[in-house]
Structure formats: C-alpha cells, structure tokens
Amino acid sequence: MPVILPKNAQAVIIGGGVVGCSVAYHLAKLGYTDVILLERKKLTSGTTWHAAGLVGQMRSSLNLTQMVKYSGNLYETLESETGMATGYRRTGSISLATNQERLTEYKRNASLAKVHGVDVQILSTAELRDKVEFFNLDDVVGGAWIPKDGKADPANVAMALAKGAKNNGVKIFEDVKVTGILKDNGKVKGVQTEFGEIKSEVVVNCGGMWAREVGKMAGVSVPLHACEHFYFLTSSVPGLGDMPVVRVPDESAYYKEDAGKILVGLFEPNAKPWAQNGIPDDFCFDQIQDDLDHCMPYLELAMSRVPVMESLGIETLFNGPESFTPDDNFQIGESPELGNFYVAAGFNSIGIQAAGGAGKYLAEWIVAKEPPCDLWDVDIRRNQSFQSNKTYLANRVTETLGYLYENHFPYHQYETARGLRKTPLYEFFKERGACFGEVAGWERPNWFVPKEMIGKVEQKYEYSWGRQNWFEFHKLEQQAIRETVGMYEMTSYAKIRVKGSDAMDFLQLVCANDVNVEPGKMVYTQWLNDKGGIEADVTVTRLGVDDYLIVSGTMCLNRDLHWLNKNMPKNANCSLFDATSSEGCIAVMGPNSRDLIQSLTDADMSNESFPFANVRNIEVGMANVRAHRITYVGELGWELYFPIEFSSYIAELIESKGEEFSLRQIGMHTVDSCRIEKAYRHFGHDITDEDHVINAGLGFAVKLNKKPSKFGKLIGFDAVESKKTSGYEMRVMQFLLNNPELMLYHNEPILKNGEIVGHLTSGTYSHTLGAAVGLGYVPCLPNESHNDILNAEYTIEVEGVIEKTQVSLKPMYDPLNEKIRN
Predict the structure, then answer these.
(1) Domain limits, the chain
(2) Were both Cys, which of 106, 200, 326, 807 would link to 9 (CB 3.0–4.6 Å)?
C-alpha cells in the first residue's frame, strides 16, 4: 500500500531502532514539533530486537559516562511517562579477573570511576562467591562489582521511546525505505523515498547496520560493518533469581539471567563479518545461520565456568547481526561532508546502554548546532574517508568485536587492516628496527629496537600495565633527543593549505593568535568556539602573501577542514585543500640538530640568521627543502618539508652524516613523552572544545588586540575577554610521582588535600625527570595566587593506591625555554 508522507519536516530521522527512537524522543522534548521518523521495515527489526540490553554505568571518559548514566535513569522513568515498561532493573554487574593484568585494569578503572561518580568496588575471590553462586571461581584472582549497573528489554525501551516521541508530535512511518538524500550547495535538503520526497533542513542517519549505505547516498563516509554476534541460552535454572550480569572478559563471554535461564553472550576474537556484499533487502527480525564450530571453544569455557550448564544443556544458539566500527567507538555528530546531515550509528554492542544519552546529546547538538560537550572520542569527524571501504571494514571488524573484552592495555595497536598508508620511509624505518603503530591508517614508527639488537629482538609489543618490552629502548630515544639529536617522521600530520586574497582575513577570524605576519613566519594558535573552548590546536605558517600552511594532528584532518568550511564567509576569496599526502616531513631535534643540518647545507642555520618560529627555503644536499624552526619536543630543532618523493634521499642523507652527531631514530612514543615533560598540550587529551583556552594556560597565544578581520571579530573573542576579567577556574598542572617504579598513562585521579578534584589528561614515563609525569586540570579560585595553588598537598591515585607527587605550574623541563631558543 502506498504511504502518504508529509512534504516537509523540521527533521527527518532515518532508522527506527532504539537510537533513532531516542533521537526523535529528545528532539521533540527540545521543541522540535515537526519531526518524521522513517523505518524501512518495522521498528526494532534490525539489531535492537535481539540486543542483550546491558546498561552499564562506566565508560572511558566523563562525558561518555554521563551519557550512559543518563540512559539508565531515563529507562527507569519512561514507564511512568509513557505507560510502557522498559524492563529496566539495576541488577549490578560483576567482572571477573583470571590474571593479575586484568585485575590491574579493573583497579585502574575503579580509580577513574571515583572521578566520574560511579561506585566500582574491587572484590576478592572470597567476596565474589556470595554474589555469583553458580560460577566456578577456582582460577579467579579478583573482580569488580558495580552495584548500579542494570539491564533492560531492548525492544520495549525502543517502543517506549517511540511512544514518548509520538506523544510529543513525532510522526513515525514504518515500511518506508529511503532511496536518496536531497542536497544543495553543501547542505542536506531532505530525503527521497519510494513514496516521494520530504524536504527538510536536518536529516539524521540512525540506520544501524545500514548506516554506511545511507551515508553513501549522501556522499558521507560512515565507517561500520555488520558482524555475526552469538549468544547461547540454557534451559530454565531453578533458583537462579535476578542474578547480576557477570562478565568474564578473559573468556570473551558475559552471562545474564533471561526469563529464568542463563544467557551467555560472546565477544570472541576473530569474529565473522557479515553481509559483505550487502544486507538482504527483505531483512526484518531475521536470524543468521548458526555456527557451532565457531562457538564451541567458548561454549566449552562457559560450561567450565558455570558447571550447572552441562546438565542444563543448551536450548538456543542465536546468531544475529550487529554493526562495529574501526576503533570500537560509535559514530555521532554532524558529518564533515554534508551540512546538517547528522549520524548516530555503529554502537558496537553498547546501543542500549548508550541510546538514551546519545539521543539526548545528538538532539542538543542539532538544536544548538554545536556539540553539548567534548565528544571527540565518538565524533564522526575523527574518521578518514578510506575507512568506509567495505574490504577494509570487513577485515578490521573481525578484531574490533572481540576488542570490547580485551584488556585495554596502554599503547594498544590494532593488527588487522594494516599497511594501507605507508610513506616512502616505511621500509627505511623497518630496516632500522621500527615497531609501527597506526593512526588514521598511517603506519608510523612508535619505537625502535636499538641497532645492535635488530634481528635478536622482535619488533612487536608485549603489552602490560607495567613497563612494556620497549621501556629501555624508549630511554635511549629520550636521551638522544635531550642530549644529542634524534630524527623522526611527521609526514602523517594533517597539512591544509589556505590560499586566496582573503586567506589572511579568514584566518584572522578563526585563529586566536595574530597570523598577519611576514611571509616566512610561523604562529602557534588555537581555533576557538563561541564559549572560548578549543576546536583545534595548530601551527600556521605564512608561506606567501596569500598562501598559508596549517599543520595539525594526524587524526584532526576532517575535523579541521569541517571547522574551516563551516566558518568561511560566503564571500571570502579563499580556497582550502588537503596537502597532507603531497609533502613529506622529517623532524631533526636535539642539541646537535643545528650542527647536523649545517653539515648538509650552505644555508646559515645560526640563531641570528635563523631564529625560532621562522621558515626558510634551503638546499639539503641535492634537494630543496623548506625548513621550519619549531618544536613539539622542547628542544632546538627543525621540521624539514619537501615533495614526498624526496623522502628516502633526504632521510638517507641525514643518516649518512648522523653518526658523528650521535643521531638516533625516534618513535612517536618518545615524541609524546617529551612533549609531556615540556607540558605541551595535546588536542583530544589535554585540550578539547569544552576546555577554555585561558584555563588551559594558552592565553599567551590569544591576541585580542590584533588587527581585526574584515569578516568580523575573532570567533570566541567575547568569551576570552570575559574570562580574562573573571580569572581562572581551572589550571593545568604538571605532576611528577615520587615513586620512580610506577607508571602513569592518563585518567589517574588527582587529589588535592585528600579530595579528588580531577584526573590526569596525559601521562608517560620521563627518563629525563626520573619518574612518571602527567598533566591535569585542578580547580582554583579566580584570584588564587600561584603560591596558594602550589602549597596544597597533591597526590595521584594509581591502581587504588594514593601516591605522593611533585607539582608545578610551569614545565618541569626547561621552564625558561632556553633550549628551544638557543
């Protein structure tokens, strides 16, 4: 039967799973009275209907934790509002550890939970026995108990949200397939369906495992892919009761009560991608063919873990599809490719847990046209366009499904779908002992096996919460940067060229610092939002009167391009293009860097001729190089830029002269540790869009008195001016542990006079300073003096133990910048 659809709407939501229903519900709550939700078949018929329904309290960041806590609170109240039960109960959850490394992970998570206001208790094996009477705990060394974790009925949650949405004016249409996305001049204008067009200024892709295909219709990359997802169901268990959810990550399994039976769900490594050639058009409440051979190893572990299962037998083996993403984080936010086209999809089996909060946050984002808080971990702009390639995704999701239950060790690297983006120096570094990591698809050396050990030591991570196998190699690299000279590649860093007669005025609008400098000068700057939060942290180089180069973090390319395009005035004579892959870059850093480079060029590299933050075109051997005197490691040094095909020649030339200057190859872990020693901020960790630039200690890079842009005041001007008057609310401090044996990574709680006041945003081991060092925000009073701040007692909680620490408001390494400007 043809469906008669409205011709217009304020917003159109594509997809009637729990997330789409939540977005509709929350848009209506925020006053959107004309919202349409379109479902290709029936509500919940994709993944929602067979979801596990686990609703945990804890995620890896404060904002994501608040998101899922909101979900639980919402599901508790929906029945009173809508009359529909959600089945939500706070049963609590237990995670069992069968080894000390896993228990260490739980202890660290429990410490972070205190910052987030979540009750997480570390229990001994004896304490666990009373809570999980059916479980064999013979090999268990401890566990984590979260009393307020819960579970819900997924389909009922979605239907309650749908009813709440309809009660507030949302129109829901089932059996309506979207066949196209209408767009004009870079913005979405509506949708095409099999029953006609609907014009709308906002379209939200909540297509679940179809979201990638919906994105393709819009020209938007939505990296996700469906996997086969299994669970077992036993026959009824007498006396089971409402047991807590039990996770045994070391065995890739969770257990929950389901109508008096035990349900065992799997998050196995080497998962099976599904529907690589497309999801069947008639898919609706369907199951996938089971695979007992694939599941049998985990079933055997489950029967050993819960011995009663052997006598009960397995009543059901269920296999249903669920979508997963390349990094195990969901996709949310406005797409960088098409204005007002939003996405909420790819929830990696936490869809019920996240849906309530994700719908709220995205609705607020749509209404305000900006995210309600820092959501960079899940922001769709973090992705690269190649990541929606189906072959890439089919390879990667075999790993990401199981990674949810892996031990989340620091420095973890995915092993699947690797080797896509290699610079010309890949083999050069590999032969010299590199162990590669991957960021945005780029293969980058993270650490090096020393020359004399190549071939004797495997260039591979051995993960641990303690000192990993490259710890001593890292020491040698740090010593080289600080005492002699190191070389590392920066080709993967995002590079954006801004050209045109209005380039300077446009950048004056978005850059907090003054970029109206002479050609050949570099400027360190932030881009601010209207609240003074930091949208980007970049260097800007004026290459010519109408030609600028922006260098940013590898992951930030699409985010930065989106911000620039979004804020470019319509009448600006200005163009942007991604120059990342056109230029190679090698950094040469350390006290001997000047002498090393001077040995390769006739150009005068002296401080008088080539001061800090200057750029020169020089000849290095037979190559023409653009040398930028700048640093992210806190040492004298240069970044050398050149056409990418010159990479091998220049690297080999530098190395040929390097021995006499004690040159060493440097990995990205050492770059990161050096920047933390110097208290340099890192976007996404230490600074985000909700961190005010003044609180972040970067006010020196904001010039309110600069020549105004012809396009208006600096974005964020009023927020900075107000903050300079009102004073600090937070200060970034540096912390150095007294105990040199411990490790810091980030997220460890900060205590001031015995009370938790924040957490570390960055952490590393400093061989230079002799212990682990970190950065973090500490609240302060607007007129509080440096002495008052520093005279408090500060400690850091590491794995549940309070540790003494030294603190500083200035960098502990080279606080006067003497080494940089030498």
Answers:
(1) 8-86+153-223+327-382, 93-151+226-321, 583-673, 728-822
(2) 200
